[in-house]
Amino acid sequence: MEPISHLIKVSVPDYLASLPIPNSIGGWFKLGVRDWLSLVPPTALLAGIGFMSYRAFCPHGRCPPPTAINPAIKKDSSKVVDSIDVEDITEKAVFCRCWRSENWPYCDGAHGRHNKEACDNVGPIVITKKK
After folding, report:
1. Which of the residues 30, 74, 75, 79 is marked catalytic?
2. Is 79 part of the annotated catalytic residue set?
3. 80-117 tens-digit pLDDT
C-alpha cells in the first residue's frame, strides 16, 4: 500500500508540477520542442480518459454495430418486392419498415424492440384511404 500512497501523494504531484505549463496564452508560443514533447503523455492520457468516458456514458457509444437490414424475410430472393393494391386497403394499412415483423409486410410493433437494440428510430408507414 505504501507504493500507491507514495505515487498519489508525491510522484504524481511532483510530475505535474514539473510540466511546462505557461501562465499566459503567449507563453504557449515560447515553449520549445522538449517542452511540447513533455506535454504529450499527459495529453494522451486525458484524451484516452475522455474517449473512454464518451464510450461509456454516451448513447452512441453503447449502440451495437450496424447489421443487415433484413435479417430473415425472403432471404432466398435477390430483392424483396411486395405489391398491394390500393383497392384492397379498407380504411387504413400499417406497413413494416424495420424488417422485423412476423406478419410481413404488415407492422406488428416489432420496431419497438428493434429501436431499443439498435439505437434506431424507425417506425411503420401508415396509409389511409381518403374519403
Report:
1. 79
2. yes
3. 888 888 777 788 889 999 999 999 899 999 999 888 88
At 16-45, the pLDDT tens digits run 999 999 999 999 999 999 999 999 999 999
For 39, counting Cβ atoms within 10 Å of its Cβ (0-12 exposed, 13-18 middle, 19+ buried), the class is middle
Letter string b/e over residues 92-126, b meaning 16 or more CB atoms within 10 A of that residue's CB: ebbebebbbbeebbebebbbeebeeebeeeeebee
pTM for the full predicted model: 0.48
* Rg of the chain (C-alpha set): 29
